[in-house]
Specification:
The protein starts with a strand and ends with a helix. The strands form 4 sheets. It has a 6-stranded mixed sheet with strand order 4-7-8-9-10-11, sandwiched between helices. The longest helix has 20 residues. A hairpin with an 8-residue loop joins strand 12 and strand 13. It is of the alpha+beta class. The protein has a single domain, classed as Alpha-Beta Complex (tt1808, chain A), CATH 3.90.1570.
């Protein structure tokens, strides 16, 4: 991400930039995001498809992809776009399906690490999601083929190898072999 300008911006400023590239708004500062690498996109689509199919089959709500913005804070505004998100029917009933950036925060966010992401930067993003009301963040690391699951109570666990990712209370009955995410 590159700093675009030093002026504090609002979510409306970011919305006016729609179609001119990929950006996120972090505490009033607009950052340009470079396109993801192929491996990143492949993994994000794999996990997104698995989640979307499960959510649709069980009529649990909606799953969204990488271009979807969620407004996390105001004054200064923060709008982030996770690789995948899940919002339940219950949360959808609070605000419907937004045509713009949603202010109704999803229960689950999935982020796929990029090679240029620093550990501190990624943890900061995880904490922003959890502070905004996300119940779980799944952080996928393509390099070591692992998934770290962070929850709103401050706990985390790391899954790797032959372990199975489960949806818990957020996606009841959801189970996914890690191999299905990476292959």
């Amino acid at each position: 991400m590159d700093l675009l300008t030093e002026k504090l911006h609002t979510w409306e400023d970011l919305m006016r930039m729609s179609g001119k590239g990929r950006y996120e708004l972090i505490h009033g500062v607009i950052f340009e995001m470079s396109p993801a690498g192929e491996e990143h996109g492949y993994i994000a689509l794999n996990i997104g498809s698995i989640i979307r199919n499960f959510v649709k089959e069980h009529k649990l709500g909606i799953a969204t992809g990488a271009e979807t913005g969620y407004k996390l804070t105001s004054n200064p505004d923060t709008v982030r776009a996770p690789d995948v998100a899940f919002k339940s029917n219950k949360r959808l009933s609070e605000g419907g399906l937004s045509k713009g950036y949603s202010t109704v925060i999803p229960e689950l966010v999935v982020e796929v690490n990029s090679p240029a992401d620093s550990y501190i930067k990624v943890l900061k993003k995880v904490n922003e999601w959890l502070k905004a009301g996300v119940i779980e963040v799944w952080l996928i690391d393509p390099e070591d083929r692992s998934i770290a699951v962070y929850d709103s109570s401050g706990n985390y666990r790391i899954l790797d190898g032959n372990q199975v990712l489960e949806g818990g209370d957020i996606l009841p009955g959801f189970k996914c072999k890690l191999d299905d995410v990476f292959n």
